[in-house]
Amino acid sequence: MPYGDAMAARTRSEERRAEIVRAALDVIAERGYRGASLAAVAERVGLTQQGLLHHFPTKEALLVAVLKERDQWDAVPDSRWRADLLASLVEYNAMRPGIIQTFSALLGESVTEGHPAREFFTERYGAVRASMASVLRAEYGERLPGGLTPERAAPLLVAVMDGLQYQWLLDPESVDMPAAFRDFLALLGEDPGPDRA
């Protein structure tokens, strides 16, 4: 195959993959994680399920591509992240339960050996912890009011964000995720005082 034809075929394939990922995002938003079947996504883009499997061999592979796309939308350069922007991200996440459900379900499954999303989440969490440490350093310097370094506090910040998502998904009427996260940010900035250090 001539070079120009190969490039055109690769471009068409990449465009088709992007179309499939966008359709999957729509289907997940409408039907949730469990309702987002490969057949529903294939139908949305005018493919057979077999045709979709040519681009994404498993549902998990497609969902990982959706999560990567989601991360691209959420991406803000480290130098521009601030604690108040994190609160805005939590509020934004509360408006898209289907995507958060997909993220949370895949995250839970990815802890098993050999899961196709394991590498994605391992790399993602390393990058997210480093980014959160930068946010905390910009906000508080080398030590938070409670004495922790940004690097030691970063995993706690990430754990609160993800833990709130799970609680909110299970009981959205009882857990106000954005308000709870703002409460946590207030705790971070609180001086514990000499008898609470």
Describe this structure in words.
The protein is mainly alpha-helical. It is 73% helix and 0% strand. The protein is built from 9 helices and no strands. It has helices spanning 3-35, 38-44, 49-55, 59-74, 83-93, 97-109, 118-140, 150-170, 177-189. It is globular. The termini are far apart. The model is unreliable at 191-197 (pLDDT under 50).
Taken as a percent bin, the fraction of beta residues is under 5%
End-to-end Cα distance: 69 Å
In total, the number of strands is 0
Derived from helix and strand composition plus strand pairing, the structural class reads mainly alpha
Sketch the topology as an H/E string, one letter per element.
HHHHHHHHH
> Rg, please?
20 Å
Per the principal axes of the C-alpha atoms, what is the gross shape?
A: globular
Which regions contain 5 or more consecutive residues with pLDDT less than 50? 191-197
The level of helicity is over 70%
Number of discrete helical segments: 9
Mean pLDDT: 85
Largest sheet features: none
